[in-house]
Amino acid sequence: MSATASESLSAQRNDPTFDDVWDEINWRGLVHVSTNADELKALLAGPPITYYCGFDPTAPSLHLGNLVQLLLLRRLQLAGHKPLGLVGGATGLIGDPRPTAERTLNDSETVAEWVQYLQAQVSKFLSTEGDNAVRMVNNLDWTSPMSAIDFLRDVGKYFRVGTMLKKEAVSARLNSDAGISFTEFSYQVMQGMDFLELYRTRDCMLQTGGSDQWGNLTSGTDLIHKAEGASAHAIGTPLITNSDGTKFGKSEGNAIWLDSTMTSPYAFYQFWLNTDDADVVQRLKIFTFLSRDQITELETAVADAPFRREAQKTLAFEVTSLVHGGAATEAAIAASAALFGQGELSSLDADTLAAALRELRHVETSAESTIVQLLVDTALVSSASEARRAISQGGVYLNNIAVADDQATLGGELLPGNVAVLRRGKKTLAGIFVSS
RNA sequence: GGCAUGUUACCCAAGUGGCCAAAGGGAUCUGACUGUAAAUCAGACUGCUUCGCAUUCGGGGGUUCGAAUCCCUCACAUGCCA
Predict the structure, then answer these.
(1) C1' nearest to CA of A178: which nucleotide?
(2) Nearest Cα to A71, choosing from A196, A276, A237?
(3) Distance A59 CA to B59 C1' (A)
């Protein structure tokens, strides 16, 4: 990720037309489940409280699902509250139970490395200045020194197996033929301990997380109640889904990452630009800092003139700017305009074209290369067979002209600057730079 | 530890000796229609030197002219028993 995500921090603010941040996050659809709503509303409208959200290092980067959490943290910070960003150096070694199957454990060096990356990402979305600057914590710091005896005596006694078995994440796995290991079964205890630790040492009153983590969130509030006799709170955000029922945050089967080396700003921008009409308003609410009025206007625009796709363009601009910064966003927009514009590709000047192609996946090659090979090299397809199949289905275009022959080579079909645009389907593009 | 059952392509799931590269559904991809949208319709969806060949049905070994299908064994999972 570029270092520019923080450049927009100073421009962000909550919509002042809401009475308080609780009303705003509810309007934005960020609250799916929570502990007592009246208490939470009062708590959030009162003096600053400390709250946290955990991110487990299961990959070298956070993804779009995590962005929902990051923005919720930021909105609460804007309301004056004090965020803790927890990266789970310990829980990342355990793995929370997924509904389908047991996770493969990652080795501790890898996890430790990922912790570094995630901490850097998390801090970019939150202010690091002022009374309520974000503070980063790592649960490895308090779980690592603990002995198994301490764990079983001091923590384990508070947990009832019956309750643990009833958690959705656990029971789903018990009822499937995948079963569940003791390791993953224990995950909820680890997360509960985190909340208790932060309650004790940082006076942390609230934990946020995805609603699929609800069992783990309440594990913490229950533990605090039992161990300290105090009540703490939790907010579970909704699972973001597409209106057609498919998974949100995937493109071509791959996750959309926040790291620009894993998902390019261009691809990131395109992902948002392609948002369904039916989903775009909900996405604006969750993923942008636009005001209620601005979003209402865009909602009207979608209804009145859907073909202009104003809401999608705004959404793509806002979120890409937020994550990748202004410069990268401008480049992504320029590339999109050049490559999806109405005009002929050959009418673009060489510099514009080259800049646009560099935003895409691109390769350097010679004019003798076959189209099939180039499709494979640019990862537009995963095998030569798939490349031939794509060509025979009429789904491959070289400089906007359909390729008919699977024996074809690049030949002399070049654009200014000795480049070519290879396209698969309607909108999957790659750049070809021909070396002389 | 014992007995039983199960492990099929991205996911779910048929298939129980040849007609199986393996039914069906979902996801995905391509084409048509569009607005770089949705819905719909059509096609594709292991690989390759592609009218043919190679390699797949948890791993390994075996029986057979021939196995995803039978046998042995290992791993993992689920249930019951201890």
Answers:
(1) B77
(2) A237
(3) 29
Pick the CATH number of A265-346 from 1.10.240.10, 3.40.50.880, 3.40.640.10, 1.10.3720.10: 1.10.240.10
- The answer on pLDDT for A230 being more than 90 is yes
* Nucleotides of strand B lying closer than 7 angstroms to a protein CB: 6, 11-12, 27-32, 34-39, 43-50, 77-79
pLDDT at A420 over 80: yes
Edge to edge, the sheet with strand A33-34 lists: A33-34, A233-237, A204-210, A50-55, A82-87, A135-138
Q: How far is the CA of A181 from the C1' of B82 (A)?
A: 22
pLDDT band for A54, please (50, 70, 90 cuts): very high
Q: Can you give the residue ranges of every domain in chain A?
A: 31-239, 265-346, 352-434
pLDDT bracket for residue A159 (50, 70, 90): very high
What dotted CATH number matches A352-434?
3.10.290.10
Per CATH, A31-239 and A352-434 having the same topology is answered no
CA A277 to C1' B20 (Å) is 44
The superfamily (CATH) of domain A31-239 is HUPs (3.40.50.620)
DSSP line for A377-401: HTTSSSSHHHHHHHHHTT-EEETTE
Is residue A90 within 8 A of residue A168, CB to CB? The reply is no
Whole-number Å distance between alpha carbons of A171 and A165: 6
A340 touches strand B (CB under 7 A): yes
- Closest nt to residue A424, judged CA to C1': B30
